[in-house]
Structures are given as structure tokens and as C-alpha cells.
User: Which sequence fits this backbone?
């Protein structure tokens, strides 16, 4: 069974044959580009924004470093309210391709997007339900399948007119989306066909928020709301 860090280490190494890895810094040695560095913070069970401890990196620094990596086109490992995920900027076509390469994912399996606020959904999706329903479901461990809008990167899931959208009930992830000011493409942090990851335990470029979820290793519940007046549960979470 592979952890998110194992996946990152194995596949980042395979990418190094194709691209140079230049070490970068953010406030000294805090952030090194996709090398053997885990940025640790308190787990989300501590409620609200994580507070730094002696052996944990300040959350503001972690956010800044993660945004920097994403803006540079990298794929990063992140905690969510369900399982660990691999995230990249959804509007960056090359980063989306890297995510598929890292996962070993079938190119016809879609990636979901993650945003920070409900109003962001209206920019990238055509919403056919009342906003009150969105507010009842999000933020939370739910992925809503909606019709995509023209604003979403056409290279993201070009084979379908639909897209899954998430707002995790996780302060770090919501703030990360807000700081990026654009959607993240998000998928579970595992090689395709392997079990999803709920904890980080070895060194790699990831944000370590401690164990997440309830260790059941289930992702979000996926609900199709793309058809007016109807809904369909695609996958229970």
C-alpha cells in the first residue's frame, strides 16, 4: 500500500528525466522544489486554521510555498476533508497533463475541480439548482457534477461537457484555492487502481496535515446535478 508521499517520490523521480529541478527558497530553507521536503502542520481535527508548534511549519508559510509551487506548474500533495489529494492549477494544461502522468491515469477519466467559495462555482459551471442547495451540500465531503462553463480550461476533461466540483470542509484547502484565485484540479493521491491515502508518513513534496477523514479511505460522495430537476448519486463516499 502506497502513501501519498511514496507516490510523489516515485513519480517525481520519473519526471526528473524530463525536466530540471532547481531548488528554490521561501524564507530560508522552508520550501525546496518538489524534493524530499514535507511541510507539516497540525491536522485539521484541531479546528480552524492550524497553529504552529515547535516541529511544525507556520501555516501562512506553507500556504505561500504551496501557492508558489502551483503557480510554477507543479503538482502537489495536499490534505482534504476526506483523503489526501494531488492538486494542480486546473487552467494550466501542462500541469493537468503532469497529474495524469503521476497517477498513471486513463486519459478519459475526468479530474474534479476544487474552489474556495460557492460563488466561484458559477464562473466555471452552469448551475441548474438553487444556491441554497449548494450551501446545504458545500463545503463538505461531496463532489457535485455540473455542466462546465466556457471559462474552464478546455484541456481539462475535453471529452465531456460535465465537471465535478468540490469545496472541501478543510480550512487549508479553502484558503489555498482563495489565494490561487483559480480552480485546482484535484484527484486522490494514489496511483490508479491503488488504495487512496489518508495519511502521510515519508518524505516528499507534500503538505502534511496529519491523518484525515476517519481512516475508511473513502473519497467524497459524487452527486450528478447536471440535469434540471433531477439528481443521481454516482458514487457514495
Assistant:
Amino acid at each position: 500500500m502506497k502513501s501519498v508521499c511514496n507516490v510523489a517520490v516515485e513519480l517525481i523521480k520519473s519526471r526528473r528525466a524530463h525536466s530540471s529541478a532547481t531548488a528554490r527558497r521561501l524564507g530560508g530553507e522552508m520550501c525546496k522544489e518538489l524534493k524530499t521536503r514535507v511541510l507539516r502542520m497540525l491536522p485539521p481535527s484541531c479546528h480552524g486554521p492550524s497553529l504552529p508548534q515547535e516541529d511544525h511549519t507556520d501555516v501562512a508559510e506553507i500556504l505561500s510555498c504551496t501557492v508558489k509551487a502551483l503557480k510554477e506548474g507543479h503538482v502537489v500533495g495536499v490534505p482534504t476533508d476526506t483523503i489526501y489529494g494531488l492538486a494542480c492549477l486546473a487552467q494550466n494544461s501542462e500541469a493537468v497533463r503532469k497529474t495524469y502522468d503521476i497517477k498513471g491515469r486513463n486519459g478519459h477519466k475526468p479530474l474534479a475541480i476544487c474552489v474556495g467559495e460557492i460563488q466561484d462555482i458559477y464562473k466555471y459551471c452552469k448551475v441548474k439548482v438553487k444556491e441554497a442547495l449548494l450551501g446545504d451540500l458545500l463545503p463538505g465531503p461531496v463532489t457535485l457534477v455540473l455542466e462546465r462553463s466556457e471559462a474552464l480550461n478546455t484541456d481539462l476533461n475535453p471529452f465531456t461537457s460535465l465537471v465535478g466540483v468540490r469545496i472541501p470542509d478543510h480550512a487549508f484547502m479553502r484558503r489555498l484555492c482563495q489565494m490561487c484565485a483559480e480552480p485546482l484540479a484535484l484527484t486522490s493521491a494514489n496511483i490508479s487502481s491503488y488504495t487512496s491515502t489518508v495519511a502521510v508518513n515519508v518524505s516528499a513534496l507534500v503538505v502534511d496535515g496529519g491523518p484525515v477523514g476517519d481512516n475508511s479511505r473513502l473519497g467524497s460522495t459524487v452527486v450528478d446535478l447536471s440535469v434540471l430537476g433531477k439528481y443521481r448519486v454516482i458514487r457514495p463516499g
In short: Confidence is low (pLDDT under 50) at residues 1-34, 44-55. The first strand starts at residue 38 and ends at 40. Residues 57-211+218-235 form a domain with the DHBP synthase fold (CATH 3.90.870.10). The radius of gyration is 17 Å.
